[in-house]
Prior knowledge:
By secondary structure, this protein is of the alpha/beta class. The chain contains seven helices and seven strands.
Amino acid sequence: xNDAPRLTGFAPVLxxxxxxxxxxxxxxxxxxxxxxxYGHPRNQFWPILxxxxxxxxxxxxxxxxxxxxxARGLGIWDVYAHCRREGSLDSAIEAAEVNxxxxxxxxxxxxxxxxxxxxxxARVMQHLQSLGFAVHRLPSTSPANAGWSFERKLAAWRDVxxxxxLA
Length: 167
């Protein structure tokens, strides 16, 4: 895979009132093509937030979805800034460069916790914890995580979001 292109992730979605940051691993092919977080139509990220907040986020234009996220105190970002990967599977990520998390408090002074969306993201849990954040591991919203039902994922996400008054 050494000939795979070097891919670049997205800027963080943050606001001064952000209390909880959801960290994915790296955008998949559909997300990169659309230039949108969680752009794959079968990814359950937006449906989970919609269920938690009783709003149909998928029906909103992407910019309005991000506005709704920021308004509720949620942030979105990924663990990796750059990587090489063919396809969308986390297991195919190579030559990954971790984002610089040291400036998070300057961008989001209200940030107290990070929730890792899946196992690949959770690889940096200890690093985020060492920066003083509470850390949580959530079940991945990826369609590749078929072992968890939507209802089971929703319950796990609700439990963490409730800790920060986001559910």
